[in-house]
TrEMBL record:
Keywords: DNA-binding. The keyword DNA-binding applies. Pfam families: AbrB-like. It comes from the Bacteria. GO terms for molecular function: DNA-binding transcription repressor activity; transcription cis-regulatory region binding. This is AbrB family transcriptional regulator. Residues 79-124 form the SpoVT-AbrB domain.
Length: 129
């Protein structure tokens, strides 16, 4: 077996381009050529198909863990739970404001219940009337 220099695994666009160039090769050969293999102490090459396939999924921008946001990238998603912070504040994160398509400066009226808080968006039309 010839000693060849191990290459860093390709990712993103470089990975997609290389896989396209190797379209007539087996998936194991594609994975090896893209750097998804290790060499054991005994000099045996082992192809890491799982890392290769996960890198392909990431390169294609496919989200398997849940909903994607508008630009197709992952990120934090709304859990619909918040905790009171040590300073007594409640923070409503951007996952919620993005989902509701809120903009900086949007205003709300706050109504307090026994164990709930109700937010009612103040319409610009209401203020002008």
């Amino acid at each position: 077996m010839s000693k060849k220099k191990k290459i860093e695994p390709l990712m993103g666009e470089a990975l997609l381009k290389k896989v396209k160039e190797l379209e007539h090769h087996s998936k194991e050969e594609k994975a090896r050529e893209c750097g998804y293999y290790t060499v054991t102490k005994n000099g045996v090459e082992r192809v890491n198909m799982m890392k290769f396939l996960n890198a392909l999924i990431d390169a294609e921008g496919i989200e398997l863990d849940g909903k994607q946001n508008a630009n197709g990238r992952g990120g934090r998603s709304a859990s619909y739970r918040i905790s009171v912070q040590s300073n007594g504040n409640l923070l409503i994160g951007s996952a919620y404001t993005k989902q509701m398509e809120l903009k900086p400066g949007d205003e709300f009226e706050i109504s307090l219940g026994r164990k709930h808080i109700h937010l009612k968006q103040i319409d610009q039309l209401d203020e002008d009337a």
